[in-house]
Amino acid sequence: MSKKPKRAISPLAEVEMEALEVGREWTRKYLQRKLQRLADRQGAISPPEPEEIEEGSGTRDHDHNESG
Hints:
It is built from two helices and no strands. The chain is an all-alpha fold.
């Protein structure tokens, strides 16, 4: 079997690949910080708090499931 020799990557291509990798990581961290600030400012929105039913003032699930 003949293996193809690995092509040497030019130094400029190596620098370009490194710059792209650093840029992606910087962008990820930037967006993570920005989204966290927005979430902190917005406050908790999910999941919604369950509504409390006062005793005797509402219906309960088992009231509807009883068979006559």
